[in-house]
Amino acid sequence: MFLSFCSRKFIIVFSFIISILAGSSYAQNNQSADRIIAKIGKSRIILQSDLEQNFGQYKAENPNISDSIKCTLLQEMIFQKLLAEQADRDSVVVSEEEVDANMEQRIRYYISMAGSQERLEEQMGRTVYQMKEDNREMIKEMMIADQMKGQILKSVKITPVEVRKYFEQIPSDSLPYFPASVELGQIVIDPPASPEMDNYARTKLEDIRKQVKEEGKSFETMAGIYSIDPGSKDQGGDLGWVQHGQMVPEFEKAGFKLQVGEISPIVKTEFGYHIIQLVARQGDKVHLRHILVRAERTSSDYKSTMVKLDSVRSELISGKITFQLAVGKYSTEKSSKMTGGMLTDQRTGNSRLQIKDLDPAMVLAIDSLTSGSFSQPQIFTNPQTGDKACRIVYLKSKNEPHKANLVDDYSNIQEVALKSKQIQKQNEWLQEKLPSFYLKIDKEYQSCPELAPWMTVMNTK
């Protein structure tokens, strides 16, 4: 096969932060040893250090893996370059604004993982600006390659008949065993703050705004002191460049109509109260800062919400209301309402979740439940906001560890069958396009089994 490992997308899209660490470390210690190991198209190259840093990340996740995996990694890296090269031919582009937004999102994520911007910069030995500049072209090429790949695969669909045929072709003794899994839903209610606490939060933010506008206090300093947004607090409230559709409507409307340097009136969203400052404007994107203040919830607020959820649970058990209707009527979590309250795997969109991947609080909540039953109301930490909220958990179904079958595992089998069909499509595309590309691979890697079909094409050119 031309591509035997395409489903492992994380190998191509390797971690931004690991690439910086591994790349800088390798470059500093092996400058004289670095060399070009592959040339693709007009000007694209892969260095030995590129492969080593990719291998370093993979080995960190799979300590027992052997060096032979480098052949597969190199195959994937070359494939990404080929996609980018074809994108150039087909005029497939991503805008600088899209690249900016992608990098801002990544940086905010890694800052939240590190705990603060200062800690991230200390760990990396580089400023956030340097990290962005060092990796901008890599991220841009990755995004272009992804778009090209999307165009190649956009017509690939899978039918139920094809799923069944794929499954029936698997020898019985080769069928995988699936671990215990569940289908879960939840009704989440964020306790409303008391009028007194809500008014206190708003008054507090009005005072902060006054100190910035009238007393000349630094917006960034005040954000660092008072904002409760963990993703921007340590960056002086900086949200980076924002495009339409990235923020909740109330926030976006207020932010986009500001003049450079202007500070908005207080804006209320589902997250709390904000004041927003426009740092810069460039076309249809804006660079924003904000300070977020949220009304504190008291024990009384949580107690009232738990009583309400207990009443909702009684309605569910008696059959007075269905789970989906209860989600629409009572849940304050917008993302849950879009899925009828059901939880999905963020990576695959699959509604069946492996128990081993659930957080401990959720595992405890469903431990004594049977299929079709509802948990007692509970207080939990909402991962979307970082605040405590209240919920009822619905266990729709539970599967014990078992050998794969079409009844219990259709969605998983469908996903694998689709990936197989996509790989076939990619191979067909490569067979058609590869002869038209310039491709040169270092002799050390020409013996890689994964690259053998490519070498055959190269040798016939």
What does this structure look like?
This protein is an alpha+beta fold. The protein has three domains: 9-159 and 412-459, Triger factor/SurA peptide-binding fold; 178-192 and 298-403, Roll (Chitinase A, domain 3); 195-293, Chitinase A, domain 3. 48% of the residues lie in helices and 16% in strands. The strands form four sheets. Strands 4, 9, 10, 11 and 12 form a five-stranded antiparallel sheet that branches. β11 (378-381) and β12 form a beta hairpin. It starts with 8 loop residues before the first helix and ends with a helix.
Distance between the termini: 20 Å
Number of helices: 17
CATH class of the largest domain: Mainly Alpha
* Range of strand content: 15-25%
Which CATH-level-2 architecture of the largest domain?
Answer: Orthogonal Bundle
Number of strands: 14
Largest beta-sheet characterization: 5 strands, antiparallel
Averaged pLDDT? 86
CATH superfamily (homologous) name of the largest domain: Porin chaperone SurA, peptide-binding domain
Kindly state the percentage of residues in helix. Answer: 40-55%
Structural class, by secondary structure, is alpha+beta
Low-pLDDT segments, ≥5 res: 1-32
The CATH topology assignment of the largest domain is Triger factor/SurA peptide-binding fold
The outline comes out as globular
Question: Helices, strands, pairings?
Answer:
Blueprint: H1 9-12, H2 16-29, E1 36-40, E2 44-47, H3 48-61, H4 69-89, H5 96-114, H6 117-124, H7 128-153, H8 160-168, E3 177-178, E4 181-189, H9 195-213, H10 219-226, E5 238-243, H11 249-256, E6 267-269, E7 272-282, E8 285-293, H12 299-318, H13 323-330, H14 334-338, E9 352-354, H15 360-366, E10 373-374, E11 378-381, E12 388-399, E13 402-403, H16 410-433, E14 439-441, H17 452-459
Antiparallel strand pairs: 1-2, 1-14, 3-13, 4-9, 4-12, 5-8, 6-7, 7-8, 10-12, 11-12
Helix pairs in contact: 2-3, 3-4, 4-7, 5-6, 5-7, 8-16
